[in-house]
Design brief:
By secondary structure, the chain is mainly α. It contains ten helices and two strands; from the N terminus they run ααβαααβααααα. It is globular. 42% of the residues are buried.
C-alpha cells in the first residue's frame, strides 16, 4: 500500500522557520562573494592601521602623554571606516538587482517582508559586529604600540564601543533601506556619500542659517556628533533621533517598493 504524501504549501510554513531559513541563506550569500572580503579589508586597514599609527606617534613623542586612554582613537578611525561597511550593506542589496538574482531569491523566499527582514538582520548585524570588533582592534593596536603611555580602561571602552555599534547599526540600516529603494549600486553609493559626508560638511560652509539647520537633520551630522562631538547645535539625543529616523524612513520606503513593484524593475 502506497502512502499518500501531502505537499507542504509555503503558506503552511511558520514565519519564524522561513525567517531562519532565509537568514541562513543570506549569511551564506554574504560570505561567498569577494566584495565582502574587500570591504572588510578596507575597514580593517583604516581602523587598525590608524590605531597603530597613533600608538607609534605617542610612543615616539619626546613628551608622551601619561594615562591617556587608547579608546580615544577609535571614533576617529570609525569615521572613514564606516563608509566601507556602508558600501558592504548597500551592495548586499543592490547586487541582487544588478545580476537579476532577485528573481530566484524571491522564488526561494516569496514572502517579501521576511526577505527584507532577513537581509536587514544579517547585513546590519554582520556590519555592526565587524565594526565593534575592528574598533576593539584599533584600540588594542594603539595600546600595544603606545605602551606604557596609553591605558585601556574597560568602562570607557564599553562606552566607545557602544557608540560605534549604534552609529554603524543605524548607518548600515539606512544603506540597506536605500538599496531596496534605489536598486542601483552607483546611485545608492552616491546617495550614501552625500547624506553621510558631503552635504553635512558642505552646507554649513555657505553661511546661510537654513542650510546649517538642514545639515543638522542629515544622518551624517548625527554620526559625526556621536563619534567626534564637533557638530554645533546638535545633542546626543538629537543625533540618535536623526540617525534612527533616517534609517527607519529608508527601510519603510524600501519595504513599500519591495511589496508594490516588480522585483526586476
Amino acid at each position: 500500500m502506497t502512502a499518500l504524501v501531502t505537499p507542504v504549501r509555503e503558506a503552511d510554513v511558520p514565519s519564524w522557520r522561513v525567517l531562519a531559513r532565509t537568514c541562513a541563506a543570506e549569511w551564506t550569500r554574504l560570505w561567498t562573494v569577494r566584495t565582502t572580503g574587500f570591504f572588510l579589508a578596507a575597514a580593517a586597514g583604516v581602523m587598525v592601521g590608524i590605531g597603530a599609527a597613533a600608538g607609534f606617534d605617542v610612543a615616539t613623542d619626546p613628551v608622551p602623554p601619561q594615562g591617556d586612554p587608547a579608546w580615544a582613537i577609535v571614533p576617529v578611525t570609525a569615521m572613514p571606516a564606516q563608509f566601507a561597511l556602508l558600501a558592504l550593506a548597500l551592495t548586499a542589496v543592490t547586487s541582487d538587482y544588478a545580476t537579476g538574482g532577485i528573481v530566484p531569491t524571491l522564488q526561494w523566499t516569496p514572502r517579501r517582508t521576511i526577505l527584507l527582514l532577513a537581509r536587514l538582520l544579517v547585513t546590519v548585524g554582520t556590519a555592526t559586529t565587524l565594526g565593534v570588533l575592528l574598533g576593539l582592534g584599533s584600540a588594542l593596536a594603539a595600546f600595544t604600540a603606545g605602551r606604557p603611555s596609553l591605558t585601556l580602561p574597560l568602562d570607557e571602552g564599553l562606552d566607545v564601543l557602544g557608540t560605534i555599534a549604534l552609529v554603524f547599526a543605524a548607518g548600515t540600516a539606512l544603506a540597506v533601506g536605500l538599496g531596496f529603494v534605489l536598486r542601483n549600486t552607483a546611485g545608492g553609493l552616491v546617495t550614501v556619500f552625500l547624506l553621510m559626508l558631503l552635504l553635512p560638511v558642505l552646507l554649513p560652509q555657505f553661511g546661510y542659517e537654513w542650510m546649517t539647520e538642514l545639515a543638522q537633520v542629515l544622518p551624517g551630522s548625527g554620526a559625526a556628533f556621536l563619534l567626534l562631538g564637533e557638530v554645533p547645535g546638535m545633542t546626543q539625543t538629537s543625533s540618535v533621533t536623526t540617525m534612527l529616523a533616517w534609517a527607519g524612513g529608508a527601510l519603510l520606503l524600501g519595504w513599500l517598493r519591495l511589496l508594490r513593484d516588480d522585483a526586476n524593475r
